[in-house]
Design brief:
alpha+beta, 3-stranded antiparallel beta sheet, globular, 7-stranded mixed beta sheet, Rossmann fold
Length: about 170
């Protein structure tokens, strides 16, 4: 099937809010940047914009899951990662969030995403601490990042670890 036929078939079947999963090898470039499937954040954003143009008005890409090894290493600057750059690049077409993983990633035979800190053992499904979520701050419009633990508690915000212990609570 030719690419144009595939896009035509695509427009006839997809409606509503769309979550797009982009799967590829996550790599560092010689210049220190990141690529997914050999594409920079700018190049991937251009590809997604073309795909979005092929969709009908009834379909809108809202979330993009970037599935590749070590794409995310958030620092105090939440816009310094591949996923944050991709989200910023796609703001104009209505994308509201992205996610990426900070560990090695494998796709199991059943299609589940697995992560490992070493890439050789201890593969985990749904390892929340290996996944960073990016979205736009509703007040400032800036990209912000969040990491949750397995219980769903926010543990890192914009690259900063959030630590709350019983020892930090002072009596009134």
């Amino acid at each position: 099937m030719a690419l144009t036929e595939w896009f035509t078939a695509l427009t006839l079947k997809i409606t509503g809010r769309v979550k797009l999963s982009v799967v590829g090898y996550g790599r560092k470039t010689q210049e220190g940047g990141d690529t997914l499937g050999g594409r920079s954040a700018t190049e991937l954003s251009a590809n997604i914009t073309k795909l979005n143009q092929a969709l009908t008005d009834d379909a809108t890409i809202r979330h993009i899951s970037l599935v590749g090894c070590n794409l995310d290493n958030p620092t105090d600057n939440s816009t310094s990662t591949y996923a944050a750059q991709t989200l910023q690049n796609l703001k104009e077409i209505g994308v509201t969030s992205t996610s990426a993983r900070s560990d090695y990633v494998a796709i199991g035979p059943d299609g589940r995403k697995l992560t490992s800190s070493t890439g050789t053992d201890a593969w985990k499904h749904k390892d929340s601490k290996a996944k960073t979520h990016y979205s736009f701050n509703e007040l400032t419009g800036e990209v912000e990042s969040r990491v949750y633990n397995s219980e769903g508690t926010l543990v890192r915000y914009n690259g900063k670890h959030l630590v709350t212990t019983i020892h930090n609570i002072k009596p009134i």
